[in-house]
Amino acid sequence: MAIGKVYLVGAGPGDPELLTIKGRKRLMEADVVLFDRLLDSRMLDGVKGELIDVGKNAGRHKLKQEEINQLLVEKAKEGKIVVRLKGGDPYLFGRGGEEAIACRDWGIPFEVVPGVTSAIAAPELAGIPVTHRKVASALTIVTGHEEPGKDSPLDWRAMAGLDGTLVVLMGVSRLEENTNRLIEAGKSPRPRRPWWRRAAGRIRG
Length: 205
What we know:
This protein has 205 residues and is α/β, with parallel strands linked by helices. The chain is 32% helix and 19% strand. It has helices at 21-29, 65-77, 96-105, 118-125, 156-160, 175-184, 195-204, and strands at residues 5-10, 32-35, 50-53, 56-57, 60-61, 81-86, 110-113, 139-143, 165-169. The chain has a five-stranded parallel beta sheet with strand order 3-2-6-1-7, with helices on both faces. A two-stranded antiparallel sheet has the order 4-5. α2 packs across α3 (96-105).
């Protein structure tokens, strides 16, 4: 039996219309779809393949990441076209890199289909450009829920000293803790100038 293929597809920031055309094509072609919980269910409308919910809640995982990796490999070994549908972009805090490595290690062909990340889309849709040639020439994206025990943990002091826009993803449960870290490291709790308030109205029309 011929080996199938795994597609790591980014679903975008939530709006079904922001799923890419290529991502939608792969969903329609899939024999199996492993999907996350942070998805609009309408994205799965019309999908004829087997649907497997592998979503994670804080502290409650239906499947461990290693089990998801193994499931991808097993389904592809059965000769199936497998889509791993992930919120945002597969390689931005989405563990897509781990899944790609698992496929490579087992000799499973795979392809990444990038998705629109909420790190840019969410502020953009709120009228806030993450870069602006007169104000913000850099963009830094960090996780707000860092894996414990890392050899090189996030340096909040260094981030507090950065110019430009700082986007913290997955940070709701640690919002106060992360905010305090930045303020203690010297970050002002107030913007230097409320440029985005003025710009937002003009940008949104």
